[in-house]
């Protein structure tokens, strides 16, 4: 049987999967594009052999399936990145409702955790189907992917870096241990990334020319390193503390653990 792998449809992860279809075609593999949540579910249900997962997608398999993280190109946010944010309702003094159009996306979970840990704003992250313009006027705290129209009050990755004092891993490759093509995955995943994934991406906040607001800065890194393991373990610890997992997942690396 040919190998099957799943990658998220979110364009955020494009640098890691830009050449995925070509590599899969060359190797006779099947590529499935799905949501973050669906990629994690496909791995859990043994419908695919490998996937690009978030830390949450990796952690939900704890005590269920034996995964290994592949030390290949991955994505990690350092400080300000303008990837996702929190918008507060104007004149809101007591946050009682927190919502998102994609509450099961990893970044939205992190946004909710930041609100709880840094600002003592505790409420269940609810789903909203309201249009964005309407949601920011009717929901106390809206957690969403960033957009050009209205800048968020809080930048989630910046607040995370301040809270945890480590970068935030966003996505990395994971394989099942019973994958028949396990010896080929690392080289394949390296080939799937585009040229931009060989360098860090610097991010600078766009600010009005008038005023004295100093632009915030951050970066997105793509190279695997020992720092990734430390940051991932810290992330899994906090997700476990917030009861996203029944037990703390171990960080298991292919070829070592």
How far is it from the N-terminal to the C-terminal residue, by CA?
26 Å
Largest sheet: 8 strands, mixed
Rough shape?
A: globular
Task: Kindly name the structural category.
Answer: alpha/beta
The helix count comes to 9
Helix content: 25-40%
Radius of gyration, in angstroms, nearest whole number:
19 Å
Poorly predicted runs: none
> How many strands appear in the DSSP assignment?
13
Strand content: 15-25%
The whole-number mean of residue pLDDT values reads 94
Order of helix and strand elements from N to C terminus? EHHEHEHEEEEHEHEEHEHEEH
Describe this protein's structure:
This protein has helices at residues 14-17, 20-27, 36-44, 55-59, 106-119, 132-138, 156-164, 185-192, 226-241; strands spanning 4-8, 30-34, 50-53, 67-69, 75-79, 84-88, 98-100, 125-127, 141-145, 154-155, 168-176, 201-204, 217-221. It has 257 residues and is of the alpha/beta class. Strands 1, 2, 3, 4, 5, 11, 12 and 13 form an eight-stranded mixed beta sheet that branches. Helix 2 runs antiparallel to helix 8 and helix 5 (106-119) packs across helix 7 (156-164). The longest helix has 16 residues, at 226-241. It is globular.
Itemize the secondary structure elements and their pairings.
Blueprint: E1 4-8, H1 14-17, H2 20-27, E2 30-34, H3 36-44, E3 50-53, H4 55-59, E4 67-69, E5 75-79, E6 84-88, E7 98-100, H5 106-119, E8 125-127, H6 132-138, E9 141-145, E10 154-155, H7 156-164, E11 168-176, H8 185-192, E12 201-204, E13 217-221, H9 226-241
Parallel strand pairs: 1-2, 1-3, 7-8, 7-9
Antiparallel strand pairs: 3-11, 4-11, 5-11, 5-13, 6-9, 6-10, 12-13
Helix pairs in contact: 2-8, 5-7
């Amino acid at each position: 049987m040919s190998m099957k792998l799943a990658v998220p449809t979110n364009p955020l992860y494009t640098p890691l999967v830009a050449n995925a279809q070509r590599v899969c075609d060359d190797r006779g593999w099947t590529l499935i594009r799905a949501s973050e949540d669906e990629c994690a579910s496909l791995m859990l249900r043994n419908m695919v052999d490998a996937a690009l997962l978030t830390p949450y997608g990796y952690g939900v398999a704890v005590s269920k399936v034996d995964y290994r993280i592949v030390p290949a190109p991955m994505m990690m946010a350092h400080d300000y990145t303008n990837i996702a944010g929190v918008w507060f309702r104007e004149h809101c003094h007591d946050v009682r409702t927190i919502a998102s159009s994609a509450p099961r996306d990893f970044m939205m979970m992190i946004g909710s955790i930041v609100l709880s840990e840094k600002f003592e704003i505790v409420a269940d992250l609810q789903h909203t189907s309201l249009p964005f313009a309407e949601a920011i006027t009717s929901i106390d705290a809206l957690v969403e992917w960033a957009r050009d129209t209205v800048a968020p009050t809080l930048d989630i990755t910046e607040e995370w870096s301040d809270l945890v004092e480590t970068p935030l891993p966003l996505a990395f490759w994971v394989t099942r241990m019973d994958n028949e093509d396990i010896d080929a995955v690392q080289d394949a995943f390296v080939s799937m990334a585009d040229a931009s994934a060989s360098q860090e991406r610097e991010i600078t906040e766009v600010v009005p020319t008038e005023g004295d607001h100093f632009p915030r800065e951050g970066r997105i890194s793509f190279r695997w390193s020992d720092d990734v393991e430390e940051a991932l373990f810290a992330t899994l610890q906090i997700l476990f503390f917030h009861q996203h997992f029944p037990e703390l997942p171990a960080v298991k690396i292919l070829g070592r653990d």
